[in-house]
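Message: A physicist's question: would you kindly supply an amino acid chain plus fold tokens?
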Amino acid sequence: MPEDQPDLLNAAIAGVIPGGQGDSRPAEQGDAPADLSERPAPPVPTPSRDGLSAGEVAHLSGGDEGAVDANNALDRAEGVVPDDED
């Protein structure tokens, strides 16, 4: 970007962020509730020893078969042997 033009990104951000540029106030934490030491601790769930199924992992990681096939085809085109563990 030429030096005689303003920084357009900062100008765009300044119009969106409340307070504009240069407003950098630190966040402050308020006082703890007076009865905090008397409150019961929240329950903590017992960890499960069950593993995730392959379908659950694929769902959580956003994987789909089409992407795997496309990646394998690209690997083959580049001369790389894809892992065929399915």
Remarks:
- The chain is about 35% helix and 0% strand.
- Helices lie at 8-16, 54-61, 65-77.
- The two ends are 50 Å apart (CA to CA).
- Residues 33 and 82 are 58 Å apart (CA to CA).
